[in-house]
UniProtKB/TrEMBL annotation:
Ranges of residues in domain GFO/IDH/MocA-like oxidoreductase: 131-250
One Pfam family matching this protein: GFO_IDH_MocA_C3
GO function terms (MF aspect): nucleotide binding; oxidoreductase activity
Name used for this protein in its record: Predicted dehydrogenase
The keyword Ribosomal protein belongs to this UniProt entry's keyword annotation: no
Keyword Plastid: no
Matching InterPro entries: Gfo/Idh/MocA-like_OxRdtase_N, Gfo/Idh/MocA_domain, GFO_IDH_MocA-like_dom, NAD(P)-bd_dom_sf
Top-rank taxon, per record: Bacteria
Domain Gfo/Idh/MocA-like oxidoreductase N-terminal per the UniProt entry, residue ranges: 4-121
Family of this protein: Belongs to the Gfo/Idh/MocA family.
Keyword line: Oxidoreductase
Coiled coil: none
Length: 333
């Protein structure tokens, strides 16, 4: 039996990526979509061949046929509607970042445990097999001991002045939007939590005083660091480099998937360069399948919801560092 999904909002990311991903998955079915404008919901449902359209989020959550919901609302609405969905007995896939801060994330996870449902953060790249392949290379000793990680994710949307990413009170800014990718990737690869953050940012008066560009340093154990930059007012980049004592791994397309050779990654050592071919897959479909299988089997997700709290603690520290122009220690536990 497939998992029937409801989509709360007609957001671009839902239409462009997540809905097609669920449709392509083996376990999921996009059953309904909701908007606060019923005409918008009906138009989107017709365009994407979704059977049911609702003119309110509440109507969708009241539908007993829907088992799971995807929430791509602006960041400041993640907590409210995730909790309402979970209280209605729905499993939730919430767009990243899961909340505005670690405290909100804790409240959301408490609600999921109380309701006995799944709460997952939508980091689609983590489900791509390339990261298991990269982990195997690291564990094999191919690049020696890890000495550092460098990640970048930038794009230019500065001209779209009405973009929700430019509303500070809504959780706008590049750290929330794309900085979370290299941050979560470093935590996943190192299997550690950073001890401190230092971030320098460009806050733009033209864009609601959000950070349109940020460059940061996260301190991990044993002198290992993540250096990263993220931005919404810069040329497109989407890369990750893992530096070791005996070599390095270069991932030219680390978070966004393209149907070309750029999706492969490279292992550079003294013996030369190995191009590791990565199969083309829909990482949004893989994400839906992992969640669907967990719903059906009752098994835990590979990235438990508590991971979202840790990621938000790091993001909280990064934002505080950028605003206060100082190094911020990250509390453990």
């Amino acid at each position: 039996m497939t998992v029937k999904w409801g989509i709360i909002s007609t957001a671009n990311i839902a239409q462009r990526a997540v809905i097609p991903g669920i449709k392509e998955s083996e376990t999921g079915e996009v059953y309904a979509i909701a908007s606060r404008n019923v005409d918008n919901a009906k138009e989107t449902a017709e365009k994407l061949a979704i059977p049911v359209a609702y003119g309110s989020y509440e109507e969708l959550l009241a539908d007993p046929d829907i088992e799971a919901v995807y929430i791509p609302l602006p960041n400041h609405l993640h907590k409210e509607w995730s909790i309402k969905a979970m209280e209605a007995g729905k499993h939730v896939l919430c767009e990243k970042p899961i909340a505005l801060n670690a405290k909100e994330a804790e409240e959301m996870i408490d609600a999921s445990k109380k309701a006995g449902v799944i709460l997952a953060e939508a980091f689609m790249y983590r489900y791509h097999p390339r990261y298991r392949m990269i982990e195997e290379k690291i564990q094999s000793g191919a690049i020696g001991e890890i000495r550092g990680i460098h990640g970048v994710f930038t794009f230019n949307s500065a001209g779209a002045k009405e973009n929700v990413r430019f509303k500070k009170e809504w959780g706008g800014g590049s750290l929330y939007d794309v900085g979370v990718y290299p941050i979560s990737a470093a935590r996943m690869i190192l299997k550690q939590e950073p001890e401190a953050a230092t971030v320098h940012a460009l806050f733009s008066e033209q864009h609601g005083d959000v950070d349109m560009m940020a460059s940061g340093l996260l301190e991990f154990e044993n002198g290992v660091a993540l250096t990263f930059d993220c931005g919404m007012w810069a040329d497109f980049r989407n890369r990750l480099e893992i530096l070791g004592t005996e070599g390095k791994i270069e991932v030219p397309s680390a978070f966004v998937v393209n149907q070309n050779e750029q999706d492969h990654f490279y292992v550079h050592t003294s013996e030369g360069t190995e191009e590791v071919e990565v199969p083309y897959v829909n990482q949004y479909a893989l994400q839906a399948d992992v969640i669907g299988q967990s719903i059906r089997s009752g098994e835990e997700l590979p990235f438990p919801s508590d991971d979202a709290i840790q990621n938000m603690k790091v993001l909280d520290a990064c934002l505080a560092s950028a605003e206060q122009r100082k190094r911020v220690e990250i509390k453990k536990g």
